[in-house]
Amino acid sequence: MIDKLIILLYLLLMVGAGYLGMRRSRTSEDFTVAGRRLGPFMYTSAMSTVVLGAASTVGGVSLGYQYGISGMVLVLSLAIGIAAIGVLFAGRLFRSGVYTVPDAMSRRFGRPSGVLSSVIVVFYTLMVGVGQIIGIGTVLTVVFDMPPTTAAFIGWATIMLYSVAGGMWSITLTDVVQFMVKTLGVFAVLLPLVVHKAGGFSAMRAELPGRFFSPTGIGMSTIGAYFLLFFFGFMIDQGNWQRLLTARSEKVARWGAIVSGLYCALYGLAGALIGTAGRVVLPHLANPDDAYARISSLVLPVGLFGLVMAAALAASMSTASGLLIGASTVLTNDVLRPLGGRRLSSVRANRITLFAVGLVALAVSYAVDSVVGAVTVAADLLAAALLVPVVGAMFWRRSTAVAAIGGVLAGSTVCVAFMAISGLYANEPVMYGMAAALAVFVTLTLVTRPDPAVAGLAFEELPDSAGVRDAVGVPAAQAVPSAPSA
User: Rounded to an integer, what is the distance from CA 337 to the centroid of its chain?
Assistant: First the structure.
């Protein structure tokens, strides 16, 4: 009962944070990018939580259980990706005011490329959000012994309450709480207790094969695949771009992303060590994905078990809310607003779109048979189709609209073809898809002429293709007015 009360209090705390965020969300810019005035702590917390979802927490422990410390490679790839966003993209995105991937494509290559990329980005963010909703339902099912569909609905309803109420302000406030819950639950509680239960590191080394302590034990091909998919894919993840623009300055955006990457790398190592120690204390689990919950129930007393389960909920909820608002922002700013004008720039319009996206995500979570397969398809398509054109838009002034559309189509087509040939979980689809996109993009750029209106301009100098610089009609290049920072 104590553990259940802790979970319920946590859910109520999330709803309360939504109310506080609602009081701050007065404009569309407040709703989508928290008014662009987050300070270092809140910004770094938000950037970290968008990385550390169910795959990084429950999945990271599962990989540690199977492969040892090399199981951290998935989270490490994400961590390097989030740091790379700060190093490579922060300056250009912050100075231009662009906070959606389709907007970046539209400014360099025109609206058709923006619409095409919107389809891929919305599909990706929606499907990964669906996976998080199902992950939330799994945790609540274990704790409350309720049907999975009911559990998923409760988790979804909590996310919708605080996200729709205050948008990015609510999500940021809940992210700070979730960041602290995850840090306390994983680093301060679960890791030391399970290592102690396993007899310490020396006993773990004596009990397990040497490959469990090799940094490459998971296999070089898997390491390469994770890096290719999650590092490159994460650099063009809509949720990350949107969080970047919540920072109050370019310096905070850059250094906060780097610090977030360091924190996430340590989190990945902690999860892998928890899984490795779990292999000693629970050596015969039928399903490695159960490792997080089973280890927690074995080593944690009443009360602390509820805290660690709340950490798993926090991981999924923070990522889900960030992804869903990312999908709704792309739909509002890059698809609907150019058609409907400034009347779709209101907070009410953003709330309606976010709730609609959430309803679709809930319906899909009930309907699909293989969420993992759908997420894999979405992630492969995102990296294969959009990475090359987006990087070209930002760093190659000679790049052309024909090359961008050709690159997106080539990358998508080759990626889907190799999914059919090699299977959904093979390494080839994203590898060959990115290679095809690069070849087509470079070739067509060299043989076609760029638009005279944007030829030779740096990315941050490009005009807004939609005719409205940002969600509140203020030129993005204009300095953000002084405001109390968070």
Answer: 24
